[in-house]
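We emphasize that the prediction below concerns an isolated chain of 399 residues; any contacts that depend on oligomerization or on bound cofactors are therefore not represented. The input was used exactly as deposited, without trimming of termini.
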Amino acid sequence: MWPRLALAASALLVACEGQRPVAADVPLDAPKGVVAVIPMHLASRIPLIEVRVGTSEPLNFVVDTGFEVNVVDVDVARRLKLPLGPEKKEDAPGGGVVTYQLPPQRLGLAGRQVEDVSFTAIPVAGFGALLGRPIAGILGHPFFAKFVVDLDFNAGSMRLLNPRDWQYRGAGKVLPIRIVDDQVLVECELEMPGPRKLVASYKLDTGSYDVAGLALNYVRKERVIGPGVQEVVSAGVGAGGKTEARQFRAQTFRIGPLSVDRPVLGYVVEANGFEERPFAGTVGMSILRLGRLFLDYQRKRIIVEPVASAKHTEDLSGLMLVTSPPDFSKVVVAQVLPGSAADEAGLRAGDEILRIDDTEPRLESARARFESAKPGKVRYRRDNRDDSVTLAPRPYPPR
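Result of the prediction step, given as a token string:
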């Protein structure tokens, strides 16, 4: 039931008190078909907006097409005194999670209110360590199914459109989708060295940092990893805990008009049974952010408009960096890929990054810095001792 979430980000919204409600079926009198325009921010490539649950303060919610339910963090639900239903145990990537159903809630979004939104309460606040800011919840498939949703990553906005009278008039590519168990599947093309072109259905997942993450059973069935393809052991984070994965470099990955050459892809080898899926894998934000997406689930389609100014970049350090509450100011190494630039520089898991190029970093700025191939001086703290190294970023696995 539960998909993997990789990374996320945050944004500011206009307060919503005193505004007229938007019913679950969307009113016909929405001006020009636009129900709401919501500021959206990409931090570490993952979209996040601010939402009010009932009369709450603005809360950071991930915009995640890959999640089959809407989620509010269980501790946030208790703090807001939301009534929790009976406790249930659900399987999730990395392990099990305890869940609670909530009665329908009213959401405030950019001066509008959406009534009768279903929610499940699970622990998701821990994702804040990956994102550099507090996370209170996730907007998933049931929310997006109510509207046509315009995700303009370049402009930093999410528009909710009335599906009854909205018509697309742009020049984007229309891609048919299938919706199976509240999972949106779209056809993508994977090209491996050889060349071998593999066309299959992938789940649309704006909650994933990757270009694409493949299912283990698909990798084995299609023999994706052929001679000469170098793999790297890595770790990930799912709703239920840690996962083990492999990374490798493909020839090309495409979704409609968007493509990335020589992308780093991955697949999970251990995730509490979630490493095997009835589809090829997930397609994530490292490629989706290169375009503007219109999610038109009622017409069984998405529309993709390429953004000419959007360029693909990737981490060149081999570092997985995290931070921690309450102020999310520290930057700590959670993982170092063996053989990467960071590994060769001598950085290790647990090191606290104090300065990069004589600048005190935040999580997002540190990640962005290591997408550049320019060598940099990294000052770090290990076992209460400070030291520094020169890190020379480079593509890993090699291109």
